């Protein structure tokens, strides 16, 4: 599921959706991806073979290097630079290496890349909470303008509390960085 498909899926949860401005929805989608990236993060492994060399091009979805380990789980010294990740080998490392890095969820083409399947549910719920805050605000304005009862709408505090609960869940589900042995 791409971020655009995720947004369309969440928009279907609202009847009616008054907060339907495309710029606003894209901003909320970006906010949801940024919050997940900052509070929980996604770790991705890459296998490095001997023929890949010692100066590696960062993956397209690269955010930050965690570490590189050899086949025994021993740390391989590495230096991240803006255009490469350079390995500093001392001769006793065993191939293949595994590079772990944090994935950039925010700064990518939202129409082309797929969100990792294990975080879709949390992102949907969080994006729904963000949209609900704006949508309920607009529903209240319309109801008040039409002199209708607004008691059936959740209040701002309840909506903000739901958002904060989801953020706490994200933090609790933080990606756990595996260790590496230094010899």
Structural overview:
- The protein is an alpha+beta fold and about 180 residues long.
- About 40% of the residues lie in helices and about 20% in strands.
- It has helices at about 5-10, 20-40, 120-145, 155-170, and strands spanning about 45-50, 55, 60-70, 75-80, 85-90, 95-105.
- Strands 1-6-3-4-5-2 form a six-stranded antiparallel beta sheet, with no helix packed on it.
Structural class: alpha+beta
- Shape descriptor reads elongated
Q: Any low-confidence stretches, pLDDT <50, length ≥5?
A: none
How many DSSP helices? 4
Estimated helix fraction: 25-40%
> Average pLDDT, to the nearest integer?
94
What's the Cα radius of gyration?
A: 22 Å
Sequence of secondary-structure elements: HHEEEEEEHH
- The tally of strands reads 6
Tell me what portion of residues adopts beta-strand conformation: 15-25%
Strand order of the largest sheet: 1-6-3-4-5-2
The rounded distance between the terminal residues' Cα atoms is 42 Å
Biggest sheet, in brief? 6 strands, antiparallel
């Amino acid at each position: 599921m791409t971020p655009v498909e995720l947004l369309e899926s969440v928009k279907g949860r609202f009847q009616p959706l008054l907060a339907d401005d495309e710029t606003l929805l894209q901003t909320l989608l970006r906010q949801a991806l940024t919050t997940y990236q900052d509070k929980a993060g996604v770790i991705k492994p890459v296998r490095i073979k001997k023929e890949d060399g010692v100066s590696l091009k960062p993956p397209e979805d690269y955010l930050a290097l965690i570490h590189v380990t050899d086949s025994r789980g021993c740390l391989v010294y590495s230096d991240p630079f803006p255009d490469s990740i350079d390995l500093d080998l001392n001769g006793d490392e065993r191939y293949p290496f595994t590079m772990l890095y944090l994935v950039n969820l925010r700064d990518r083409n939202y129409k082309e890349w797929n969100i990792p399947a294990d975080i879709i549910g949390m992102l949907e719920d969080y994006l729904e909470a963000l949209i609900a805050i704006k949508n309920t605000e607009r529903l209240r304005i319309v109801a008040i303008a039409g002199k209708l009862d607004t008691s059936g709408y959740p209040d701002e505090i309840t909506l903000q509390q739901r958002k904060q609960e989801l953020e706490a869940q994200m933090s609790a589900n933080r990606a756990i960085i595996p260790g590496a042995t230094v010899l």
